[in-house]
């Protein structure tokens, strides 16, 4: 690939801002490019095979009530790697692969909140364990600096509001992505057009607000259950979820901005925006491959570590009576 502008003229590819066909990309690859494509494709296939093996493990070792949630969360990295690999081989499918990855990860965000509740024994056991506690709402990404915010009591209503905060993103993100594709097919939407007159800037801003609202309940719940679920590796699980979120969302935004500012140059047959997406897809494949391997280690647990110890009401009353008798015995 030779950079445009060596002879002082603007290449039509750079001005068109369109993604090339797959055969054009393949014909422009040299030996290094072919090796890179082969290695990244092999990494994607390996990530998918590791996920399939993990699904078999989950069905054998994880209780039925948690299986679907664990499968959804573990599938996030392989799905993003697969969609990125497809977009790398077929550049004109990028809009659809991005749509698939975004919709899937929006559902994973909701599933992660449900997983933290499930790991506490379910909603009833969670409410019983934290019935006299409060949620600290001055957490990121919304209110990490607002330390004056009051703590809210943990009950069914507040737990429902937290679930609603993540569910709205799982519902509205697919709707907005579908609207983007409809406008894109009609020529009214372009990811690289962030002018006030374009639809992309308004849709992206709305998605950004919805994302922040969805991440807030995750942070609130994590701060509450972090100590309780430390034995279940909740901290590394949360770290993997955060890495997947940042790399799949923020990284693409940064690269897109660099492409629009001309930092990422046009190299025919790839325009600046297409080359930025091309780089983002290759980075995502490597990053999601590593996250898949680490997730396989983190989500593996012994059977006796799966359930938290549950103290019944009768046992609690019995303990109180025993302590009262022991105190009276000491007095007399």
Characterize the overall form. Answer: globular
Strand order of the largest sheet: 1-2
Q: Give the terminus-to-terminus CA distance.
A: 93 Å
Order of helices and strands: HHHHHHEEHHHHH
- Beta-strand share of residues: under 5%
Calculate Rg over CA atoms. 25 Å
- Helical content class: 55-70%
Biggest sheet features = 2 strands, antiparallel
Structural notes for this entry:
It is a single chain. This protein is mainly alpha-helical and 332 residues long. The protein has eleven helices and two strands.
Task: Using brief descriptors, characterize the structure shown.
single chain; 332 residues; mainly alpha; two-stranded antiparallel sheet; disordered N terminus; disordered C terminus
Short structural summary:
With 332 residues, the chain is mainly alpha-helical.
């Amino acid at each position: 690939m030779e950079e445009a502008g060596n002879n002082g003229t603007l290449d039509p590819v750079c001005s068109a801002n369109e993604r090339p066909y797959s055969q054009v990309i393949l014909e422009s690859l040299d030996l290094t490019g072919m090796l890179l494509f082969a290695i990244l494709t092999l990494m994607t296939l390996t990530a998918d095979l590791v996920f399939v093996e993990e699904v078999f493990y989950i069905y054998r070792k994880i209780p039925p009530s948690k299986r679907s949630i664990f499968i959804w969360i573990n599938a996030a990295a392989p799905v993003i790697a697969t969609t990125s690999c497809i977009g790398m081989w077929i550049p004109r499918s990028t809009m659809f692969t991005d749509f698939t990855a975004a919709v899937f990860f929006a559902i994973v965000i909701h599933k992660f909140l449900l997983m933290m509740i499930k790991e506490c024994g379910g909603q009833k056991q969670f409410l019983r364990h934290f019935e006299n506690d409060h949620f600290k709402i001055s957490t990121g990404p919304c209110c990490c600096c607002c330390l004056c915010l009051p703590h809210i009591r943990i009950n069914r209503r507040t737990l429902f509001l937290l679930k609603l905060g993540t569910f709205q993103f799982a519902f509205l993100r697919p709707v907005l992505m579908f609207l983007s594709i409809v406008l894109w097919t009609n020529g009214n939407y372009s990811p690289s057009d962030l002018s006030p007159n374009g639809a992309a800037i308004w849709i992206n801003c709305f998605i950004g607000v919805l994302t922040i609202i969805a991440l807030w309940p995750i942070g609130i719940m994590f701060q509450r259950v972090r100590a309780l679920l430390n034995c279940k590796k909740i901290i590394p699980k949360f770290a993997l979820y955060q890495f997947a979120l940042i790399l799949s969302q923020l990284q693409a935004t940064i690269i897109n901005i660099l492409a629009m500012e001309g930092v990422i140059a046009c190299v025919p047959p790839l325009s600046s925006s297409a080359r930025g997406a091309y780089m983002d897809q290759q980075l995502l494949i490597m990053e999601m491959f590593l996250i898949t391997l680490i997730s396989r280690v983190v989500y593996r647990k012994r059977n006796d570590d799966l359930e938290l110890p549950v103290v019944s009401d009768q046992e609690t009353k019995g303990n109180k009576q025993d302590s009262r008798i022991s105190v009276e015995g000491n007095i007399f």
